[in-house]
Amino acid sequence: MAAALSLAERGVGRTGQNPSVGCIIVKDERVIGRGWTQPGGRPHAEAMALAQAGEAARGSKIYVTLEPCAHISQRGPACAQLLAEAEPARVVIALQDPDPRTAGSGIMLLKAAGIAVTTDVMVSEARKSLAGFISRMNRGRPFVTLKIASSLDGQIAMADGSSRWITGDVARAHSHVERARADAILVGAGTVRMDTPQLNVRIAGLDAYQPRKIMLGSADAPKGWEVIRTPQDIANLDCNTLLVEGGAATSAAFLRDGLVDRLVLYRAPILLGAGKACLNDIGLTQLQDAHGRWQLSDARSLGRDRFEDYEKAN
User: What EC number is given for this enzyme (predicted)?
Assistant: First the structure.
């Protein structure tokens, strides 16, 4: 299952509204099929793995990170039906599908076909891998990561607005990997006017991983950009993951509305003093309310800079 979860990571940010799933087929202790959700959402991981395995899938064990879909789609066959027809001995599933169109019916279909089914394997890891899809199913909006690159004293630019570059090459490359894992990137209208950001992925080998560009505000956006008026409008974006790279006003707006699920900080070992702060008012009125909201999940050095990854506390 760990290997299947690794395969699923290949599709993150490229599968549209579909979940990024991984699938591995094993027979006689040998991998005979591997698959992950392809760009745009099709083929699904199971279909890809079954195509590799062919007739050898009969009597195999199949590991999949999300319950195989069971609902009818014009884009392709239901994976639960494909698996049932392949006649494996066992299907091991990490997580039940939160999509109400499947939600347990894929498991029931497999069991009705006489296939042994094991569920709830590496659940926490699968939830993290599928966080965007789960958020869209359960909360009606994408999973939101807020990125802030600042000095040690929390400044994102000099007083005159100059900000290139606060962090070094290694940290910036890492931030481009974060971009590659997002379906869409959002900045505020002010950032668009002042910086004309490209918001693209500029790492060799990841050229195909280019997220949609979203502007928050009421002004007209440049060609190729989409516009939303308020942070709550992210519910209309029809995607799983959103990376917010806005300035102080945009970042504060998402925090104030409780829409940030993950916070990534890139901090350079510099002090700017009278610069531009990373955040505006986020609505706190008492210091005690600031505590207990975030928990550190990862921290490391990136060249001369420091990276910290925080998850929203439950």
Answer: 1.1.1.193, 3.5.4.26
Read off the pLDDT of residues 115-132 as tens digits, 9 standing for 90 and up.
999 999 999 999 999 999
Of 311, 308, 254, 312, the closest CA to residue 282 belongs to 254
Per-residue pLDDT tens for 204-240? 888 878 899 999 998 788 888 999 999 999 999 989 9
Q: CA-CA distance, 234 to 142, in Å (whole number)? A: 7
Inter-residue contact 36 to 130 (CB < 8 Å): no
Q: Is the pLDDT of residue 253 over 90?
A: yes
Instruction: For residue 285, give the 3-state DSSP assignment.
Output: coil
Secondary structure (3-state) at 160:
coil
pTM score > 0.70 for this model? Answer: yes
- Please enumerate, by residue number, every residue annotated as part of a binding site: 44, 69, 79, 149, 163, 165, 179, 191, 195, 199, 202, 218, 245, 247-253
Domains annotated on the chain, with CATH:
1-135 (3.40.140.10), 141-312 (3.40.430.10)
Helix (H, G, I), strand (E, B) or coil at 73: strand
Quick check: 268 and 168 in contact, CB under 8 A? yes
67 is catalytic: no
